[in-house]
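Marked as duplicate of an earlier ticket. Keeping the data here for the record.
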Amino acid sequence: MIVPRERRLRVLGLLLLLLTALLTAFGVPVTSAQGTTLRVVPSDGTLPIDDPWSSSWDAIRPVDVTLSGQPVAPPRLLLPNVPTVRARAMIDGERFAVLLEWTDTTLDEDVLDVGRFADQAAVQFALGSGTSVCMGQQAGALNIWHWKADWAADLASWRDIEQRFPNAPQDEHLPPDLAAGAGLGPDGFLTGRAAGNPRSALVRPSSVEDLIAAGFGSLTPEPLERQDVAGASAYRDGTWRVVMSRRLDNADPNDAPLAAGSAMVVAFAVWDGAKGDRNGMKSVSAWLSLVIPGREMSLLDHWPFLAMLLLVMALGAWLLWIGSRQPAVGLGGPQA
């Protein structure tokens, strides 16, 4: 028995519709355009916030995010020094974590010299709709997590200018009574530390700085008591991996609302210290969608997709029935 070509095409179309419906129902991307969505994966066990090279991270399919230069505001970077960053995200009942991975041929964590700059990475969350990716605006602010390789190195082992230049002469120290009265300590000429500059702090809670911004020139660190973003990083075989994480139950209105079942837009930035990246000289991404899963869905939660699947099956069966009642065309009649 020869099946007419038209009928074969109908059956093939029906199978493709069924496959598309099933893939959509179970959250499998059908087109490559969905690569601009970073889907947060529920953790099966302990969230690996302290181990960037954990096998739990390797089990998650990464999203490759293309980066471009930052040509808008000075200091500018017209072409990206880091063309791509790979992103993964994970959640458990208490914390949210994002992993950034990128290729870098040099490890740059020493900034104790003029002309030395650290490797850095950042993730920014939009706190409103229509927020500008360029540092936000008054109508839509940003929450930024900014990891710095030099801060991570300081947490492992504090270093100061004496380690970089051990034979340099020592500055004069203030007399103890004058230093105590001014609240400066013996190193009274450390003006950045005296002014409360976070980059000059002797003690830091994390390698990640929690910041807010609402336009160019408005970047502001959160107060020390609200610096609640943890960081972990590791450099291996020319690749950086950085994990940034925070508790979900955060009541700070300036922080990203990372609630289960929510969605928002995020963007990434990476600095290559060996190539002079600092401040606005960075490789940046466009906005991506960040989707955080809610509770685990049961079969009944997929009823819209199941209804669509049944409708497609009924339509396909009807088309096959109609086709079976039509005479075959172009097959010729019986031989005399």
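See parent ticket for discussion. Residues 30 and 264 are 21 Å apart (CA to CA).
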